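Chain A, query sequence.
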Amino acid sequence: MLHNTPSKKPEEQEIALAEDETDTGDPSQLVVYNDDHNSFDWVIQCFMEVLNHTFEQSEQLALIIHFKGKATVKTAPMEELKPKKDALVDRGLSAVIE
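Chain A, predicted structure.
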């Protein structure tokens, strides 16, 4: 049965891979640092609204930041992270791109 399944031609697969590689850029990391003035609820809300993380992801990241002092909250190309970093900083979080 598997032999009857239509699939992409090898040249189509190569083109798709080449496009993916050129569009991604070098991945950067958006890092958020712990502070003494933002509540867990606020940090979680910021991660959900700005980064589109689930509540569970946001809560886990907030706990990691609290106990470890920092956490990488998103990895993506620099141009994608810049507006997200700016939005987090505008909301009072300590965020940098590394």
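The CA atoms of residues 27 and 77 lie 5 Å apart. The two ends are 48 Å apart (CA to CA).
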